[in-house]
Write a structure and sequence with these properties.
heterodimer, A: 271 residues, alpha/beta, Rossmann fold, eight-stranded mixed sheet, 8 strands, 42% helix, 16% strand, globular, B: 285 residues, Pectate Lyase C-like, 2 domains, six-stranded mixed sheet, five-stranded mixed sheet, 24% helix, 25% strand, elongated
Amino acid sequence: MTGRVIVITSGKGGVGKTTTNANIGTALARAGKKVVMIDTDLGLRNLDLLLGLENRIVYTIVDVVEQRCKLKQALVKDKKNPNLCLLAAAQTRDKTAVTEEQLKDICEKLKKDYDFILVDCPAGIEQGFQNAVAGASEAIVVTTPEMSAVRDADRIIGLLEAKEEIKSYKLLINRVRPNLIKSNDMMSVDDVVSILSADLIGIIPEDTGIITSTNKGEPIVNSEKSLAGLAYRNVARRIMGEDVPFLNLEEEGSVLSKVKKFFAGLMGKEK
Amino acid sequence: MDKGYVDNGFIVDLTSAKKTSEIIYELSRILDMPESKQKHICLKLGSVDLSESELKSVKALVELMDSQLAFISTSSANTVDAATALDIKISEFTNNIEAPKFENKQAAQDALNQLDGISPQDTQPVSDLQNAVQDDISPIVREDESSAETQDSKIEKEICEEQSEPEKLPTLYLRKTIRSGQSISSDGNLVIIGDVNPGAEVIAKGDITVWGILGGIAHAGKDGDSSMRIRALKLNPVQIRIGEIFARRPDTINLPYVQKSSQYMPEEAYTHKGNIVIRKIHEGN
């Protein structure tokens, strides 16, 4: 088996790289794929929290690199899904504790046993980014519909294009708020795509459920009701090669707007 | 003409100014007052050395306020030279006609400290005002200090310019999007099939042509040749530089990005009398 190594990156911090990583990883594992997630954000690790695995970490990626344990020993299995595991970052070290070569080596080894290796990239374009990208052949660039995030995504895409190992990159637009786009207060998905001229792999609507799911350590893809969860499951299906249409966010309004629409219809009939 | 007073005008005493920035600040403060409009203005410049381009900016500032620069007085030989080159009348008069008094000098001093060290091309108010006046010609401009040269070298340069027409230069042809943080430089012309995104810069010795939206910084004629031109399907640059002349996007236009459209009106930026002008390409040549 040769797995696909996908790096999830953004340039700007706080746009949802780690959330995306946790959710896509979980969704792929739910679909029966063997998935390993690598957190390369040394010193500022978060991925374990989102998955609720913090208390199970014994060895980290630095322990693997410094040969204090075997690679297999450091992989933390997910609570629910045996197909999913995590290679955690060390919280007590910084980005220089691992080199590009070492990460490449780890990815090569994991490729043999897993379908997908998702690398969670730290913010910025320094060593941490270079490390994370080193072993990957595909990339997902996460951005939000804000000028600053789009500008940084543009920078990142420029850097990815310059890397020979990266064969393809896709764009994921996070925290989209259809009502703000409608009122012209937010850049639309089309605006972002046209600036970055990159292929889209997903549009994730803003969802307050993400906050509670992060706090609980339970990825939102596991919640069947959530629109963001559905969007992430669709992203996972697209990664696996399925042709899934994008959600039409404008029609998926809140309950209140549906009720309003219903009454508006009644009023129309009365007239 | 030196009558010791000015018809329909007044004398601005700037002899206490030590720097060019102080002169420009003080002058713009005075000219901002409604009673300063449409007057003949005499400047007492004192000992400050003004280069030709600096003096030109001062003159432009006066003219922007619908006033005229009647004559100047100065004790600096350099300023005299510059004024001669620009055909500005010089007076050596000494008299005691009072300059208008303006209060609140202390507050002005604070603002002045921030202005210190600002070189002429940074005196952006000129650009903005000019922009407001010339509505349809969007970007504006100022000459750089380095463009002040003697007549002789200018002639020499013109000969050089004739020799380096863009047609005779090699061309770098790129089919890609230039993204934030990337810098493309060419020793000849530069053709880009794709967008130049904000945060990127494209620099060429000759012309720059962008088959897409130009949103970053473009610098044509990097060796100082201001006859070069910048063309794009849509010009939305943060800054344009042609030769030694530069213009920035006016603050009044707030277009962080331009939506791609199926209809473009190709645009061209070129220099005209020391200003950068943008026009639609097919509006005649």
